[in-house]
Structures are given as structure tokens and as C-alpha cells.
Amino acid sequence: MQQIIRRFLVFSMISVLLSSCGGSTPLFSKRVDRSAFHIRDADIVDEGNAKEKPVPSEMVRVGILVPLTGGSAKLGEALRNAAMMSLFDIGSQRLILQFYDTEGTAEGARKASELAISQGVELIIGPVYAKSVRAVRPATHSAEVGVITFSSDPVNLGDGIYTISTLTSQQVEHIVRFACDKGYKRFAILSQDNAVGDIISMAAKSAVDMCGGMITKAAFYDPRTEDFQTAVSSIMPKLMEDLEKERDDEVKRLEKATEQVASGKPVLIKNEETGGYEEKKLTPEELQATIDVLKNQELVRDPFEFDAILVPEEGSRLRSLGALLSYYDLPAEIKVLGTSQWADSKPAREPALIGGWFSHLPSEGFALFSERYKGLYGEKPPRIASQAYDAVALAAILAETGSFSFSNLTTVSGFKGVDGLFRLLPNGLSERGLQVLGVEKKGTVTLSPAADVFETVPVFAPDVYIKDFRHSPDLVTVPDVDGEEVGKPESDNQSPAEGV
Fold first, then answer.
1. Residue 217, SS3 per DSSP
2. Which of the pair, 465 or 333, is modelled with greater confidence?
3. Which distant-in-sequence residues (6+ apart) come within 8 Å of 333 by Cβ?
4. 436 three-state secondary structure
5. What pLDDT, on the 0 to 100 scale, is given for residue 37?
6. Is the pTM of this model over 0.90?
7. CA-angle at 237, arms to 172 and 217, nearest 5°
8. Radius of gyration for the alpha carbons in the chain, expressed in angstroms and rounded
9. C-alpha distances in angstroms, 248 versus 288, 291, 302?
10. Coil, strand, or helix at residue 185?
11. Which of 102, 288, 376, 412 could form a disulfide with 109 if both were Cys (CB 3.0 to 4.6 A apart)?
């Protein structure tokens, strides 16, 4: 039965997008009264007021909890539009969507969930925000009603609450495993100093442990700051200009100690092996010889302790970090890695990011969806709108089986929608088919296409989030400088398209 559900859903969700793009039939045909979609109304019906229409007993109801008023009303409207697109595209004869306004607040979401359950919904899609998801849990758990939310906060997931969002953790694992397979074994992390940093750290650690790599450097910055230099400098070897300044300062200090040495007093001399300073008694001649050695010393910059660096940031912040990587002379052979945040951030504007790799959803389906959405509503949809489309499509297909059971929602074979292959997992997380893109000067190139089918059963850890893991001593491994070299890439001159 699960195979039948999956095949039907894959066919329906893709074919309607393709067929609708070239057709001239409007989404809202004459049999649908647009007034039925007013915020005051809930049911999607043929025409007229939903409250005046009897509903056949075999119909099933799904509640859509989104902010239709308040500061997030525009986002809620986009999600509602996408949900209605999906219902009409799939053409379900059994499904009724009922929209409930969360007002963008946790309390509004709680009231909406209780009202929806009292009105007979068998599945809830939404809410959008993490606090709202926490607020609806008591009512949905008590009623044993499943929830497909747009929030990806792992703390709220599981026990019948599933996210359809694309998870940062999965993207991190995907890109790290890809790099690991290409021979990059020593990784650095540069991320926000908050819960996002914890999730990224856990995902990266899980991936490197699986592939035999290690995390050798990690730095975290205040998510509100625009000054990333302290964080970046903490994982980079010192610049030549810094080494030169240190040497010049040391020479000046020793030159000032000439009278001190002449009077027989000890002077602090740096121990090159330990890096510490020790008191030594020197003759003036020995002091001068030490100064001469320092002045003529050939400075060599320390080697980088990683082969790839993960930078999961977006927009101008990503480009600022890229500029700092250039400032610290990051070698071209060190691979810069990212997530789907890179997609709309114009990474090619920063030389250090050209040649980088990032994981991302397949984009063909969303391009078609976006074109149709704009034709219907006069503006481009937010990226999250495709999740509403896919969630309703999934519900429409499962409605044909008559069951929104947790086992049906988490069918192992998964589903395929606007954003490609996905499946909901028993622990509430989602898994998606991801591609890997390489950054080039004029755009991106596909290095690894997204999977078309899930070939294995899902594997997931019981702990999806551990607070402050980013500062755990288990995160960073200090390489053994006396042991075998770790993590030499397959080719120092590998281009983004090679080796795939």
C-alpha cells in the first residue's frame, strides 16, 4: 500500500505542475466562488458560504494553521495561496481544507488548534513558528492528531509532530559527507554562537565520525554582530605581517634590556620549543647575538590545520566572512563548504567562495511552482511556500486512503513534490533528496544530483539537539603532529566539476 501511495503522489505532484504551466485553464474555475476563500471562511467548497454547505460523511478535514493577521500576515497569505494551489492541482474529492488564523502568536496558535480539533480536523498543517508549535502540542497530543509544521526547531518535534522544512542539520551532514568522500578529512566550523551553532556542530561531528574525518578547528560568533574578525582569526594561522610585528617587538624589547644585561641581571628569553619565556643570564655579546639571529630569522607561517571549512551563512554576512577568508590568505586548495543559504547570497562575488561547494534542494520543481504562483497571485512566492504546497498534496493523497495515521505519514519510501524527494521520520525530522552545487564565477554547476528514491531505511540519532554542544570538548580533535598526515585531498588543483 505504501508503494501505491508513493507512486500516486509522485505522479500527481509533478504532473500537475508540468501540465498546468502550459495550459490556459485558470486555477480558480467558475465552479469555485472566490469569496469562499475569505479569511472569515474555513472550508473549500464548490461555491457560496462554507457554513451553509453540508459535508458528506466520507470527507476528511485538514486544518491549516497560519498567521492571517498581525505582522506575519503576508507570509500566512502566501502559505494559504500555495495550499489552495495544491488542493486544486491534486483534485482531491475527499479533502476539505480549513484555515485558522494563529495571529502569529503562540496563544493564537493554541486557540486555533483547539478550535480546529473541535471542528473535526484529522491532520494539522502548520504552525509556522517554534513557540506556536509548542503551544499546540497539548491539544494535538491529547486528540492524537498529527501535525506537519513549517518550523524545524528539533525540540518541538516527535510524538506526532513532524517538520516538512529542509533541515540545516541534514544539509550539513550531506555536504560534509560529500567533501569527505572527495578526500577532505580535516574540517573547521565557522558558525553562529547559538542553538544553530549547536545543531551545525552536532551534524558536522556526526558526519565526520561516520567518514573517518575530524573537526580540528571551530569558532563561533555572536549572531547579531557584523564584526567576524575575532572568530575568523582564532582558527587561522597568524599572518606574515603579524609574525613580522611580533619579531620586531621582540627585537625592541631585547634591545631595551642591554643595560639590564650589562649589570648582570637576567632577561626573559623565549623558549622556541615550549613557546614560553624563561629568565636567563646573558653577556652583552650573547644578547647581541640573540638579537642578530632574530633580525635575520626567516619567518615561516604555520600551516593550516584543516582541509575544508564549513561556513553556513547567508547574504552579506556570508560575503563578509568570505572577504575575511581572503584577508587571511586561505589557500585555494582548502575547500569552503556551505548550505542552501548560499543559493541566493551571490557567493561568486567573493573570490574565496569561488570553487566552494554547498548542499541545496533540487530547483527545477520550485522554478515551475514559482512561475505559476506569480501568474496567479502577481508576485513571487517566498521559498517556504512550496512546503505548504507539498504538505497539502501529501494530505490529499493520504485522504484517498482514508488515514492520516503516523505510519502512513512516515512511509519509508517517502514522497516527491515541488522540492523533490522527502520523507517524514518517526522522530519528527524530515529527510530530503539534496544536490551538491559548486560555485563558479558565472553561477553554479551541479556536482552531485539529488536522489530520486530513498534506497535505505532512515537512520537517525535519538538526540537531535544538545544544548551548548558547540562548546563541548568532544567537538574538536587536535591532530597528532607526529603521526600520519590526516586529510590530504585527492587533488590540490581540483576544480568544482572534477572528481564527480
1. strand
2. 333
3. 307, 489, 492, 493
4. strand
5. 28
6. no
7. 30
8. 29
9. 15, 10, 18
10. coil
11. 102
Residues 361-403: pLDDT tens digits? 998 999 999 999 999 999 999 999 999 999 999 999 888 876 8
- Is the CB of residue 462 less than 8 Å from the CB of residue 452? no
- Three cell numbers written together for 500: 564527480
User: Which residue in 421, 411, 417 sits closest to 457, CA to CA?
Assistant: 411
A 10 A CB-CB count for 295 gives 11
Residue 332 in grid coordinates: 585555494
Residues 6+ away with beta carbon under 8 Å from 225:
none
> Where do the domains of the chain lie, and which CATH numbers do they carry?
2-166+363-432 (3.40.50.2300), 168-237+303-360+435-471 (3.40.50.2300), 241-295 (no CATH)
Cell numbers for 140: 494535538
Amino acid at 479: P
pLDDT tens-digit series, residues 406-417: 989 998 989 999
Q: How much is the pLDDT for 301?
A: 76
Q: Which region among 286-295, 341-350, 381-390 has the lowest average model confidence (pLDDT)?
A: 286-295
Instruction: Please state whether beta strands 146-149 and 161-163 pair in parallel, antiparallel, or not at all (unpaired).
Output: parallel
Identify the CA nearest to 148 among candidates 368, 174, 140, 283. Answer: 140
Instruction: List, for residues 186-245, the tens digit of each pLDDT value.
Output: 999 999 999 999 999 999 999 999 999 999 999 999 999 889 999 999 999 988 787 788
- Long-range pairs for 287-295 at CB < 8 Å and ≥24 separation? 287/254, 287/257, 287/258, 287/261, 290/254, 291/251, 291/254, 291/255, 294/247, 294/250, 294/251, 294/254, 295/247, 295/251
* Enclosing H/E stretch for 474: none
Closest listed residue to residue 96, CA positions, set 136, 127, 54: 54
Distance CA 497, CA 500 (A): 7
How many residues are present in the chain? 500
